Amino acid sequence: MNNISSVVITLRSADNCEDIALVVAKIPNCEVAAKEGDKIVVLIESADFDSELATFRALEQIEGVSTVAMIYSYQDLDSDISKANSNDIGEIVRKIDEMDIKDIKYNGNPNI
């Protein structure tokens, strides 16, 4: 696992803390670290950021959950950095510079 994070789940009611903690514990990559009152602390281990985000979203969807707050997040970016450094960025930029402007298509959103 490359990503480790922790979240604090705040419940709508402390009455169902045990039941919700059981639901959380069944979600892949989740471990209930602590629970008290209307709060549950969860550790998430995931292979990548997308998996981490999917787990976070799954926690938000549990009935009885009020909020999910990310407290800590660590991503091992060494492999991503290595991949980026192995690209021949000079060659890519040169090809872009040589392209006819009519052949360049932009699919982004300039209003972000």
UniProtKB/TrEMBL annotation:
Keywords for the protein's UniProt record, in alphabetical order: Chaperone, Cytoplasm
UniProt-listed InterPro entries: Chaperone_NapD_NO3_reduct
Protein origin, superkingdom: Bacteria
Compartment(s): Cytoplasm
Subunit structure: Interacts with the cytoplasmic NapA precursor.
Function of the molecule: Chaperone for NapA, the catalytic subunit of the periplasmic nitrate reductase. It binds directly and specifically to the twin-arginine signal peptide of NapA, preventing premature interaction with the Tat translocase and premature export.
Family: Belongs to the NapD family.
HAMAP family: NapD
Protein name: Chaperone NapD
Naturally occurring in which organism (per UniProt): Campylobacter lanienae
